[in-house]
Amino acid sequence: MAVAINSDGADVVAGQVADDRHPALSRWSVPGLSPLPGPDPCPLTPHGDICNVLTRSEHGLLAVAGIRTQHLVVLDAATGGTGTTPVEGHVLWAELAGSLLASSGTRTEILDLATNRLVWRQAPPAPPPPSHTNMVPLITFRPDRRAFAVGGSGDPSVLVYPLTAAGPPHVADPAATLSGAPERLRWLGFGPTGKYLIAVDAYAKRTVVWQSGETEPHLEDVFGENADDHWCVAFHPDGEHCALGMLFGYINLYRLSDGELVDSQQQHASRVNTLAFTPDGSLLLSGGDDGKLLVWPVD
User: Before 41, cis peptide (omega within 30)?
Assistant: First the structure.
């Protein structure tokens, strides 16, 4: 399961397994989880496809791809429609920031949807490991959109690049090289203030945190190899706390400054696949392999 919450926190789009009764995408009100119309028609295969990529911009755009088709479709989150397919080839990861679309799969690149301009492309591309063709480099934008980070390319580092707003695709050298990263990633993302960056190992063996201005991992004795079995992440809007979903149904809440475990609850019967805070930070949404989408209060 995957979720993408609206910027005002009023509704959430959920991605799940498509079957004869349910499409792979549905839309729900928050916090009551009453069904809402759209997006319709669902762009994913109606029978047996699984929503693998789901990301939403603050302007209401939704980028989605399934495990079977792996073709990225960008559409209006509320109304749906036929959508557009701005990226060629297969897509296994995507992130939207305004009109900027970062995607990775056949290629790892950033596209400006407003101008159809290629902003950046990884060259040469980083090939996936032969036995795990779904492991591709991941891209994430810093909240101020002055930089982006790329990790999971097969080496133990995350590269932070300046984001060029105009001109041809830039080939600038990285502004920073963050060490101690997992070579392959499941998740990569900046917090809402840009103070912290978190990477989750593709094999759920490590969770690594970096603090702004530092290139070595933050609190490696707390996170790192001591923070295994994590599968998904959501930053609290204050930028100082995060939720980590685990393989065994638990959700851990951490204070990032000192690594304090603030709370730990078993909300799902099996793996937690996705987490999202409402913009005011009062609610946390979680989805898991057990097919449940839950909303629970956060103190």
Answer: yes
Ramachandran class of 210: left when φ > 0, alpha when ψ lies in -120 to 50, beta otherwise:
beta
- Tens of pLDDT, residues 212-252: 999 999 999 999 888 899 999 999 999 999 999 999 999 99
Output the six-digit token pair for 25: 């995408």
Q: Which strands, in side-by-side order, build the sheet including 283-288?
A: 272-277, 283-288, 293-297
Question: Shortest CA distance to 184 belongs to which of 249, 112, 132, 261?
Answer: 132
Q: Are 251 and 245 in contact (CB under 8 A)?
A: yes
Q: Is 170 helix (H, G, I), strand (E, B) or coil?
A: coil
- In the chain, alpha helices (H): none
pLDDT one-digit tens code per residue, 64-116: 999 888 899 999 888 887 789 999 999 999 999 999 999 999 999 999 999 99
pTM value? Answer: 0.94
Asked if residues 246 and 215 have their Cβ atoms less than 8 Å apart, the reply is: no
Count CA atoms closer than 13 A to 84's CA, side-chain side. Answer: 8
d(C-alpha 44, C-alpha 67), whole Å:
9
- Residue 144: C-alpha distances to residues 141, 175, 193 (Å): 8, 15, 8
Residue 290 — φ and ψ, nearest 5°? -75, 0
Q: Terminal CA-to-CA distance of the chain, rounded, Å?
A: 25
